């Protein structure tokens, strides 16, 4: 089984909480992807320490050490080759990748975005979602294409926007969903059950959970008041 696991490298810029979720999922030998390396563009990214503590090889490739974005991406590409990477997972990687690099890895590079794409591309998704007044929010894993947050969607998870939410409380709720969704999506890609073809995601060779068809996220979903039996008695003929 281990020889068939897809060699996956995670790109981070910060705390790496989604990276940590992927490492945890891949610690199961039955998981179809193996996290073989973590690359950060920032030397002080907290996720580097987390990866090292779990025995994952790490590398810092900072933008400052390269004369152009193309040179920076070429250095990342060389590091990926050294890792013998088969899949690249972006987990809070905060740089826009060059089109040439993206095209080279297209169909093998995935990203997680804290919104239900195609809504709320870019930054500050939770504050923008609250400002728009939406009642359902969530996260998306998608294949990476040259246009930001625009690639074919692999998987999504939805959460309710609660009355009284602010950007921080909403972000925390979405993050919990992200930590479940990203391992699921990486597993689908690693097993070939989700693949990119002709600009779309093709899902095949797996059975969806029938219970999924009946699940509903509603918001607001008010607490049901306990029935006032005396009141019912007065109005019941």
TrEMBL record:
Superkingdom as given in the UniProt entry: Bacteria
Keyword Transferase appears in the UniProt entry: yes
Binding of (6R)-10-formyltetrahydrofolate, residues: 69, 94-97, 111
The EC number(s) this enzyme carries: 2.1.2.2
Active site: residue positions: 113
Catalytic activity: N(1)-(5-phospho-beta-D-ribosyl)glycinamide + (6R)-10-formyltetrahydrofolate = N(2)-formyl-N(1)-(5-phospho-beta-D-ribosyl)glycinamide + (6S)-5,6,7,8-tetrahydrofolate + H(+)
Record's keyword annotation contains Repeat: no
Domain Formyl transferase N-terminal stretches: 6-186
MF terms (GO), sorted A to Z: phosphoribosylglycinamide formyltransferase activity
Metabolic or biological pathway, per its Swiss-Prot or TrEMBL entry: Purine metabolism; IMP biosynthesis via de novo pathway; N(2)-formyl-N(1)-(5-phospho-D-ribosyl)glycinamide from N(1)-(5-phospho-D-ribosyl)glycinamide (10-formyl THF route): step 1/1
UniProt keywords, alphabetically: Purine biosynthesis, Transferase
Gene Ontology CC terms, in alphabetical order: cytosol
SUPFAM superfamilies assigned to the protein according to its UniProt record, in alphabetical order: Formyltransferase
Matches recorded under CDD domains: FMT_core_GART
Enzyme's top EC category: transferase
Matches recorded under Gene3D superfamilies: Formyl transferase, N-terminal domain
Binding site for N(1)-(5-phospho-beta-D-ribosyl)glycinamide: 16-18
Site feature: Raises pKa of active site His: 149
An individual GO BP term: 'de novo' IMP biosynthetic process
PANTHER family named in the record: PHOSPHORIBOSYLGLYCINAMIDE FORMYLTRANSFERASE
Cited function: Catalyzes the transfer of a formyl group from 10-formyltetrahydrofolate to 5-phospho-ribosyl-glycinamide (GAR), producing 5-phospho-ribosyl-N-formylglycinamide (FGAR) and tetrahydrofolate.
Family: Belongs to the GART family.
Protein name (database record): Phosphoribosylglycinamide formyltransferase
Organism, scientific name: Mesorhizobium sangaii
Gene coding for it: purN
């Amino acid at each position: 089984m281990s020889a068939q696991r897809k060699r996956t490298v995670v790109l981070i810029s910060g705390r790496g909480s989604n990276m940590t979720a992927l490492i945890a999922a891949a610690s199961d030998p039955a998981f179809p992807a193996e996290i073989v390396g973590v690359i950060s563009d920032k030397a002080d990214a907290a996720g580097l320490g987390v990866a090292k503590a779990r025995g994952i090889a790490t590398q810092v490739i900072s933008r400052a050490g390269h004369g152009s974005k193309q040179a920076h991406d070429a250095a990342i590409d060389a590091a990926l080759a050294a890792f013998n990477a088969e899949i690249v997972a972006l987990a809070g990687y905060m740089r826009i990748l060059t089109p040439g690099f993206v095209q080279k890895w297209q169909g093998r590079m995935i990203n997680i975005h804290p919104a239900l794409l195609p809504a709320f591309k870019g930054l500050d998704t939770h504050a923008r979602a609250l400002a728009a007044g939406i009642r359902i929010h969530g996260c998306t894993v998608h294949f990476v294409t040259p246009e930001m947050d625009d690639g074919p969607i692999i998987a999504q998870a939805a959460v309710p926007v609660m009355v009284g939410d602010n950007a921080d409380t909403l972000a925390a709720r979405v993050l919990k969903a992200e930590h479940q969704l990203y391992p699921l999506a990486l597993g689908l890609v690693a097993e070939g059950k989700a693949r990119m073809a002709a600009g779309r995601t093709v899902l095949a060779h797996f059975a969806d959970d029938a219970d999924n068809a009946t699940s509903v996220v509603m918001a607001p979903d008010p607490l049901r008041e306990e029935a006032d039996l005396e009141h019912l008695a007065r109005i019941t003929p």
